[in-house]
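Quality-control log, excerpt.
Job 1 of 2 completed; input and output follow.
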Amino acid sequence: MRVLLKISWEALEWERDHGIDPKFLKNLALQIKEIHDTWIEIAMVLGWGNIFRGMAGASNGMDRTAADYMGMLATVMNGVAMQDALESVGCQTRLMSALDIPEVGEQYINRRGIRHLEKGRIVICVAGTGNPYFTTDSAWVLRALELGCDMMIKATKVDGVYDKDPKKFEDAILIESATYDQVIKNDIRVMDQTWIALAREWKLKLKVVSLYKEKAILKAIQWEKEWTTIS
């Protein structure tokens, strides 16, 4: 099985207001290693929200293109941190960037990424798609298709998708399963609508889990509950 993880880096702030909590990152690396040791091939797409939020920068007067490039560079920083954490627990990794930064990692090439996965390396995809105006959602779906992934897992602060914001509404209900058609019709905020439509077209399996629940990613892969499944 080949899985693409999208890690919400805001979740890795843990109790901080920015950056990365090193202990929490180490714990995540150990969880990923446990999954990888079961012969599951793992690729990752990283966000940038813990360092810089491109849309927020644009809304505050910054040029959107400049803001998005800053966001891409922030994902590279997160990628280096993730690579270091994984290799410290014994995983082989390859950092692959949509921007050409040879001193830090390889340039993302589809066939090379597949080959790394086949050789048992964890592939960490950074810099989004390398284009402004494209979110990490776009990179998530595109990389899942390009790398031939069987499942997409979004690991975030909340334990799934709710019918409304659980932070604002105590009566918010966890949606255990939904179809892509229901997600689009009800405007459920899983990812950008454009990429929801592409995921639906290619019948990608998608799960949303909490980074804060013990072994939630492994449980989702093993089809246990405690998440939202979209298919």
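Job 2 of 2 completed; input and output follow.
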Amino acid sequence: MPPRIHATAIIEDHVRIGEGTSVWDNVHIRHHTTVGDQCIIGEKTYVAYDVTIGHRCKINAMVYICTGVAIEDGVMISAGTIFTNDRFPRATTPDLASLRPSEPDDETLTTVVGAGATIGAGCVIGTDLRIGRFAMVGMGSVVTKSVPDFALVLGNPARVVGAVCRCGHVTAKFSGTPADEIDAPCLRCDLKYRIVNGEAVEIA
């Protein structure tokens, strides 16, 4: 099935959009970006150049994804989320005589969102970090450091407060790093996890 692209969307040159993907109204996707198969890109979302988005991702309305972001398969990014890629942003050169160029430079850092992760509505995601596989970032959180796989993080700055299953349900809640290993099965789908040094590990 070919992609469905709304008439008001702006798709620049050298963008690849996969089969079955829907791009809704007033989306802007910059050049040399890749979007996988069966994705949804919600209205008024901006995707910068050289971004990679995997298969079966849901990018909700009014999301800002900047250069340097890589999104793996099966990720959900909720409405109003903002990514960043520069720790020392300035509009001009130090003498204020000219604008800084917008192209990536040695201050442009990367962010990776691991497969299956969810980012809640209204989050701000820092740079030079990774959000782990199947992690859950609670709405309104400000992520300033990497998030482990299967972690539930909340707040400003976001901190680990528990663990979640592949299905999204919470398997454990804790504050700080648990002193002992804890079994944390999912009561909804019966997948099994263990908390080791504060991080969830799948058990076959």
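Post-run check on job 2. The mean pLDDT is 95.
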